[in-house]
Write a structure and sequence with these properties.
The chain has 225 residues and is of the alpha/beta class. It is 44% helix and 20% strand. The relative contact order is 0.15.
């Protein structure tokens, strides 16, 4: 059983906690106590109370004394418009079958049309699918599922989660649940819901992209005006 993600909705219930999060996003996810204090105009003791509250909810970390950072830059840097943070893409790739173009490649082209240019591209797949597409010389970072793992939701999530959490810490992540097996699609969409990650679905034939979870939808869910 995978642990629950950060408790974003609870964190956003208090306006002063929202101010703290907004300040951290303003500084691309990391800031000194004095910077947050200046942005929020909260007194030292009150600010420390809200920072400790956000730490307890899994929203904020403090590895260095006097410096605080968002545990994950996605989704909060999306929600508060911190666009200086680079993008990353995490998708799926199935067997070649009748497709001429890998679905992640179609997705990346469509994202580019929306001014989203991922700095890193990770794709979960099987060794068999990689072999199917070897003539395309795809320059992705692979996350491989072996044997029957690709048809087991829990196994797919175990493969995805370490890399996904690492990307969420540093990037504005977009996940793409278009391709591969149905269990893999369900596994990735479930993680997107749990961690509030923007999620897309692509029609290869029509060359269209649909946001299943959008940044605007995340803002509504978090109660951000």
């Amino acid at each position: 059983m995978l642990q629950m993600g950060p408790r974003y909705e609870e964190a956003m219930k208090l306006e002063k906690s929202q101010k703290v999060i907004h300040s951290l996003c303003k500084h691309s996810g990391i800031a000194k106590f004095s910077m947050i204090e200046k942005d929020t105009e909260l007194g030292g003791g009150l600010l420390l109370h809200h920072l400790n509250r956000l730490i307890s909810l899994g929203i904020v970390e403090s590895d260095v004394k006097g410096t605080y950072r968002l545990k994950y830059r996605t989704p909060l840097c999306y929600a508060f418009g911190a666009r200086k943070v680079p993008f990353a893409y995490l998708g799926l790739l199935g067997r070649r079958d009748s497709y001429k173009t890998p679905e992640p490649e179609v997705a990346l082209n469509l994202l580019s049309n929306e001014k989203i240019e991922p700095y890193l591209v990770y794709v979960l797949t099987s060794p068999e699918a990689v072999s199917d597409w070897k003539t395309e010389k795809l320059r992705y970072q692979w996350i491989l599922c072996y044997g029957d793992e690709i048809i087991e939701i829990d196994e797919v999530q175990k493969r995805l989660l370490p890399q996904l959490e690492a990307l969420l810490r540093e990037y504005l992540v977009v996940v793409d649940c278009t391709s591969s097996t149905k269990p893999a699609t369900i596994a990735l969409y479930d993680l997107a819901q749990r961690y509030l990650i923007p999620c897309i679905y692509v029609s290869v034939e029509k060359k269209t992209l649909k946001w299943l979870i959008s940044s605007d939808g995340i803002r509504v869910r978090l109660g951000i005006e």
